Amino acid sequence: MRPTGKLHLGHLVGALKxxxxxxxxYDCFYFVADWHALTSDYASPGGITGYALxxxxxxxxxxxxxxxxxxxxxxxVPEHAELYLLLSMxxxxxxxxxxxxxxxxxxxxxxxxxxxFGFLGYPLLQTADIAIYDGRFVPVGDDxxxxxELSREVVRRFNQxxxxxxxxxxxxxxxxxxxxxxxxxxxxxxxxxxxxxxxDSTTVAKKVRQMYTDPKRIRADIPGTVExxxxxxxxxxxxxxxxxxxxxxxxxxxxxVGDVEVKTKLARALNAMLEPMRERRRDILARPELxxxxxxxxxxxARTMARATMARVRDAVKLRYSV
Length: 323
Ligand code: AMP
Known about the structure:
Largest sheet: 2 strands, parallel
Order of helices and strands: HEHHEHHHHHEHEHHHHH
Structural class: mainly alpha
Radius of gyration: 22 Å
Shape: globular
Distance between the termini: 39 Å
CATH architecture of the largest domain: 3-Layer(aba) Sandwich
CATH superfamily of the largest domain: HUPs
Bound molecules: adenosine monophosphate
Strand content: under 5%
Helix content: 55-70%
CATH class of the largest domain: Alpha Beta
């Protein structure tokens, strides 16, 4: 994850929940992509390290266990940059230019000048991040799927030149790979439509009241549409009381429930889910030196692996000078 702001519910259902579950079955590497944050925030990098520690606190509060998974910081493992450079030798520039997020983000973040080499190289750096750990699976939201497709193509091309050196990665999507925000666009910090993991219960309730819902339903007695309605998508994703959700859906379709009731029950379910995380987060943030230690220790562990991969890669590209 890029440390460009606070984490929100989209991060939780699109990635973090998966991160926690995958710890049971895989040797997991989770990292703060601070160089990736610089690709868009290079003009004002002052917030990155603060968000990095804040994000790691959220990961741990959500259940990522530093004893089981490796938590690290990208820039503390500079071998990522070396692999990125070597991959850049084989990647045709048009492959990067046609990644859909490249143009989309340039248009959507028009206030930032994203015509840089670093921003174009974003998904290539991501390929290096994955391949340097022989990553087979990458737990992401669906916005990242084209990046993973590029990663697979780049790895194949690299291997064509140099032999079976790198492993092709696959995306691992969650049941909610794209969570809408309050305005029904994708939830994203750049759209200011988020519910943050750190929002208090009053803020959550207030934001839920502002949520986009069926626009044709101007009165409670008009039958409403549940499918594609973000308020019900949230109920499905976050309200564990399936009977309550079914009852609300039935009455909504029949025009027999007001938006206020549907949203009040959603805010209650969200707050019940978030409260234990808020508590754990408070405990963790009370010991900032511990978060730093986890990130530094994890980076040391990651670096050992990254170095071993780079020794293999340097051999493959015939850049081994034995002294
Ligand atoms: P980013 O903040 O862009 O670095 O995203 C970090 C991770 O969260 C990526 O795996 C994204 O796919 C995922 N993510 C971000 N926003 C959403 C969303 N609204 N719905 C689902 N997943 C998301």
